[in-house]
User: What shape does this take?
Amino acid sequence: MPIYEYRCASCGHQQEFLQKLSDPPQTRCPQCGQEALEKMVTAAGFQLKGSGWYATDFKGGGQKPAAKAEGAAGDSKTEAAKPAAPACGTGACPACQ
Assistant: This one.
């Protein structure tokens, strides 16, 4: 559920509310009781940390895709014989094989 931040136009009180998307917006200020709460536009309350998600994550127990393994061998004859088709890098499409 998203966290929304509201500010009262009457007294300036700010508060966060954990609400469902389907819930109606808050209108009554919990501090002064006035119907003057306004939803604020704030930054997202989460951070993405770590190395990220890649095509190789959780596939084949850490094995490299076939296209990268062939390119790492350094064989110039095989590279010249390959067509210039774009490869997705996952080994799932015909261009990667």
About this structure: The beta strands are 3-8, 14-18, 37-39.
